[in-house]
Amino acid sequence: MMAAGGGAGSARSVAWGASALLVAALLLSAPSATEAYDSLDPNGNITIKWDVMQWTPDGYVAVVTMFNYQQFRHIQAPGWQLGWTWAKKEVIWSMVGAQTTEQGDCSKFKGNPPHCCKKDPTIVDLLPGTPYNMQIANCCKAGVINTFNQDPLNAASSFQISVGLAGTTNKTVKLPKNFTLKAPGPGYTCGRAMIVRPTKFFTNDGRRATQALMTWNVTCTYSQFLAQKTPTCCVSLSSFYNDTIVNCPTCSCGCQNNGTSPGSCVNENSPYLQSAIDGPGKWTGQPLVQCTSHMCPIRIHWHVKLNYKEYWRVKVTITNFNYRMNYTQWNLVIQHPNFNNITQLFSFNYKPLTPYGGRINDTAMFWGVKFYNDLLMQAGPLGNAQSELLLRKDSMAFTFDKGWAFPHRVYFNGDNCVMPPPDAYPWLPNASPLTKQPLMLPLLAFWIVLATFLAYA
Ligand SMILES: *[C@@H]1O[C@H](CO)[C@@H](O)[C@H](O)[C@H]1NC(C)=O
Ligand SMILES: *[C@@H]1O[C@H](CO)[C@@H](O)[C@H](O)[C@H]1NC(C)=O
Ligand SMILES: *[C@@H]1O[C@H](CO)[C@@H](O)[C@H](O)[C@H]1NC(C)=O
Ligand SMILES: *[C@@H]1O[C@H](CO)[C@@H](O)[C@H](O)[C@H]1NC(C)=O
Ligand SMILES: *[C@@H]1O[C@H](CO)[C@@H](O)[C@H](O)[C@H]1NC(C)=O
Ligand SMILES: *[C@@H]1O[C@H](CO)[C@@H](O)[C@H](O)[C@H]1NC(C)=O
Ligand SMILES: *[C@@H]1O[C@H](CO)[C@@H](O)[C@H](O)[C@H]1NC(C)=O
Ligand SMILES: *[C@@H]1O[C@H](CO)[C@@H](O)[C@H](O)[C@H]1NC(C)=O
Ligand SMILES: *[C@@H]1O[C@H](CO)[C@@H](O)[C@H](O)[C@H]1NC(C)=O
Predict the structure, then answer these.
(1) What is the rounded average pLDDT for all residues in the chain?
(2) Ligand 5 atom 2: residue of nearest CA
(3) Which of 139, 178, 348, 413 is the most exposed place for a label (fewest CB within 10 A)?
């Protein structure tokens, strides 16, 4: 930073080049392979809690609850799948509020067979509209779990399980092992079950507490690397001070390949549009995207719209290019240094996220307003949602130079979106990257180094 601020021209360009390289390297490595968790949500996890409510002659009845403690990653349709391996020869006599996907071999049992005899059962949620006698609180949402930030009442999912051929006291019960959580694809890794202090349940008036006979917890964390997903969104940029619209990088989410896989996308005005939408991928939920150079199902556009004396205004537009998906309860996470002073926001909900314990306040989560734009419709004329942000300038840092007005990171539904390379950002007229004082890039590099350091520390 010192060299960049005070040196001669050539020293400056060297410093600029070095910091640009550093920034580029760090930006490229941001969602890196080794990142076991997300630096914007370092404590994010899904905790699965088993509360033994009753011992039975051959086992126990437990209520299992999954809590989504992630700031901005939810579980969408077609929902979660929870699995584990029994420690002994346990069976599931019955379940309420969920079911196993397979019964397995119950031929040893005379009379009424168990619900499931598999050593490694897979559990799925029941659908909404399940008969009341098969429901318990927090069940039957087709495996969809929202975030606490967006909808705290729907951030957990529960079912009741009656286990047989198991231990019947807290000394003899064996904890299930090898938990797996699919959402529904890969990405989550679950730790070992650990016995914790028994949960206390309070009556509605709060005047009496009962408690579980025994409780154990399992924590699962998400890694974008494990999910091995191709990107699902990209970012495009524009500004009032430069006519250039910086589009999403070509092939951000895939390439149009007419030779080997025709039909990987469909044109907006194609006569075959409807038959493509109803094609074989319809029931598997396979995306069908509009043909674009980026091929992403979702594009986020950031437009620097207006410059006032003390404020500036940004318009953010989310466009859905997927003909087979209505995104319910979508969310957006954006990182920008001026987010410490969001003054006004139109037609989105908003919450600042301070992943570094409040020391850096540059990240915010946005989501739709209920019944207004919380449903992002499938590709087409209605497939977009937009908002405007009014930001108060910080006289020390604010500049339209060097791409400062553009976001550093953007996530849609928890997935990191592909950004244009920093050297393609719209410039201020008459500004080339080498002629002006390079104040912001080293500062940006500094923040990124600090953030990376904090993330790994
Ligand atoms: C899971 O998230 C909760 C809530 O943020 C937190 O209290 C807990 O420490 C986290 N657990 C782990 C193992 O990170
Ligand atoms: C098991 O239950 C006994 C009382 O029945 C209690 O004292 C003990 O702490 C319990 N152990 C665990 C691990 O919950
Ligand atoms: C744990 O589960 C995974 C996937 O279900 C399986 O591949 C692995 O062998 C299991 N490990 C043990 C020790 O059961
Ligand atoms: C176990 O999970 C529950 C629910 O998330 C939580 O309230 C409790 O603090 C956890 N216990 C421990 C010891 O982590
Ligand atoms: C694929 O076809 C579309 C129109 O059908 C065309 O615009 C596009 O350039 C083609 N892409 C390649 C890689 O040939
Ligand atoms: C999206 O919602 C609209 C209106 O509710 C419905 O007509 C359409 O079929 C839905 N699309 C998908 C892919 O579910
Ligand atoms: C927001 O801007 C106002 C006016 O410049 C300033 O007084 C305030 O401290 C800023 N807030 C933060 C969190 O930087
Ligand atoms: C972060 O900035 C927002 C305004 O954008 C403000 O409302 C919030 O209080 C700030 N949070 C912290 C921890 O400074
Ligand atoms: C606008 O920005 C682009 C970089 O994206 C640059 O090549 C162009 O020269 C800029 N236009 C003006 C008028 O400065």
Answers:
(1) 86
(2) 258
(3) 178
